[in-house]
């Protein structure tokens, strides 16, 4: 195992069967830095490169991180433990994909070289739920709004005024 280079060289790494692992911080990933609030937290990444069926470069990997995002029910922070894993086959054409078993996700027309940071970001972002929420039943922010409105109910004030003029 060695640190992960900044640029992935797809065929080059796959032919050599390289394995990498590195501990990043959330803030090393510009697009994630905007979405998550725990930017100093660690993110462990492992990547393996190999050739499948003598011709298809593949990347298998797993990322482990905590993602601090806003709960869509109560709007407070919720900490999600994520460990997205992926198994990708990079194809020259669709026919090539027929030789891969169904455990592979396939990508067409990949470049030979691409950014490691952007590649990992894409894999992590699709693993974050669209509407993250606390696992427990937190209070809906809409209910909280309702309570606030009741407290400031103008009729309640009118009632008070009436009473004070009695
Ligand atoms: Zn919540």
Automatic annotation (TrEMBL):
Q: Name one GO biological process term.
A: ribosome biogenesis
One matching Pfam family is YceD
Q: List keywords of the entry alphabetically.
A: Ribosome biogenesis
Q: Name one GO cellular component term.
A: cytosol
The function of this protein is: Plays a role in synthesis, processing and/or stability of 23S rRNA.
- Family membership noted in the UniProt record: Belongs to the DUF177 domain family.
Please state what the protein is called: Large ribosomal RNA subunit accumulation protein YceD
The species is: Ruthia magnifica subsp. Calyptogena magnifica
Taxonomic classification, please?
Answer: Bacteria, Pseudomonadati, Pseudomonadota, Gammaproteobacteria, Candidatus Pseudothioglobaceae
């Amino acid at each position: 195992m060695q640190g992960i280079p900044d640029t992935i060289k797809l065929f080059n790494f796959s032919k050599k069967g390289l394995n990498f692992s590195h501990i990043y911080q959330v803030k090393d990933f510009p697009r994630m830095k905007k979405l998550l609030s725990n930017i100093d937290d660690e993110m462990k990444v492992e990547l393996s490169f190999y050739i499948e069926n003598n011709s298809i470069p593949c990347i298998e990997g797993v990322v482990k991180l905590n993602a601090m995002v806003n709960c869509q029910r109560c709007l407070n922070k919720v900490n999600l433990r994520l460990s997205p894993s992926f198994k990708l086959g990079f194809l020259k054409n669709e026919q090539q994909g027929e030789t891969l078993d169904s455990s592979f996700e396939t990508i067409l027309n990949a470049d030979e070289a691409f950014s490691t940071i952007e590649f990992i970001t894409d894999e992590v972002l699709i693993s974050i739920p669209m509407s993250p929420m606390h696992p427990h039943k937190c209070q809906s922010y809409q209910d909280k709004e309702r309570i606030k409105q009741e407290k400031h109910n103008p009729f309640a004030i009118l009632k008070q005024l009436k009473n004070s003029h009695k």
